[in-house]
Here is the input.
Amino acid sequence: MLIEDLVYRIVFDSRGNKTVECEVHSAEFVASAIAPAGASTGTEEAVVKDVSFIEEVQDKVSKALVGMSVFDQYEIDRTLREIDGTQNFSEIGGNFAITASLAIAKLASQILGIPLYMYVGGAFASELPYPLGNVIGGGAHAKGSTSIQEFLVIPVGAKNFLNAQYANALTHKEIRKEFDKRGIFAAKGDEGAWAAQITDEEAFEIIKAAIERVESETGIKMRMGIDVAATELWNGKEYVYRDKKLTTDGQIAYMAELADRYNLLFIEDPLHENDFEGFAELTKAVSCMVCGDDIFVTNINRIKKGIELSSANTVLIKPNQIGTLTDTFRAVKLSKDNGYEVVVSHRSGETEDETIAHLAVAFNATLIKTGVVGGERIAKLNELIRIESEMEHASMVKIRRL
Ligand code: 2PG
Ligand code: MG
Here is the structure.
């Protein structure tokens, strides 16, 4: 089956920004994918090309891909790289490239009559990731709120995905009650997490109180995690918080202290994006998952460097950071071959596109970071519930560093 038509159109994301959707056709089959967008982006991410170039890019991409086999994903992604001709998709845009790449994979799975997770992950893909839910947030996603970008919860005691998401949703609600109890006004940030004028320590305490109630009500054990998004705090010399400034050594010590004090399971981007050594020092000092997002940007060259320097033990995977499904797959494979755990992630600017739910299952990810509430987040979570209910032998993944 050949790609017969490929069209781009402008649509909107959850922040109300214009983004791009790619739709591909083969006989009576149609599939599409929409590009998400970050706010706290890594410097070396694939370039986002302005949507005003839509006609020019459509011309180039459709000329190159129409007529190719929908099943030749490797060749399709290689062609996207070839017509772009740069390392970081600065010519056709990572947003244009990833939507074509994913839409074609979805089209192929549709033609075969199998779900995308099976097309990418094989017949034995049967494990569901735990939802890593953002419940309080600040940083670049809600300026004026906490310094740490994301306070996350993981329902590690849940026996299935439906209950796992239920526990996260309940925690999100209990946190709201905790804010009310303390007389603190809270609104929601870009990812649906609560945002308020509180310190990071207060956020931890509020979540702790909420989790205790959720655990006693549901019997599901919860753990906490954070995405520090430390590149956003780094001023070139120090990490600047609402209420303090820390040197690199201070930051490493603070992260280790938080991991210990709050029994954290997951710490993302604890140091800025180029501090591979600082990352390594922290990874040695703690037993939890230390995850690289801005430092790795789903890029095998940066992940390779991280592996050589023992910078982390977990990788955040965002397909739009690298621009093709093939490159995303390679980043996952390299990470896993070297003992890293995989976390598939949304972006702060999202849409109803549910593709990453399938990729998380296909890649056997330990966690999926995709928020707790809000239509664009629920799209992925509900898709995972559907996947779980359709699977004959579904089970939750094993979290290695519990
Ligand atoms: C992150 C993401 C998603 P953004 O830092 O991990 O939560 O944020 O999409 O803004 O980069
Ligand atoms: Mg991050």
